[in-house]
Design brief:
Number of domains: 1
Protein name: Histone H2B
GO cellular component, one term: nucleosome
Order of helices and strands: HH
Number of helices: 2
Radius of gyration: 17 Å
Family: Belongs to the histone H2B family.
Number of strands: 0
GO molecular function: DNA binding; protein heterodimerization activity; structural constituent of chromatin
Length: 58
């Protein structure tokens, strides 16, 4: 890599997977969840929060 190339930086993405898994483990301690299901729940939470913020700001 020479001095003229830019380094690619990762975009920070807010995830709630840790919090969701902690809550699910407390409610259902013997049940595991697939990563695809966790992605769907994370997208749902992000959508809800985005719409709440949009309604608050309008």
């Amino acid at each position: 890599m020479n001095i003229y190339e830019k380094k690619k930086t990762k975009k920070s993405v807010e995830t709630y997977k840790i919090y969701t898994s902690k809550v699910l483990k407390r409610v259902y301690p013997n049940i595991d969840i697939f990563s695809k299901s966790m992605d769907i729940i994370n997208n749902l939470i992000n959508g809800i929060l985005r719409s709440l913020l949009r309604n608050i700001l309008d």
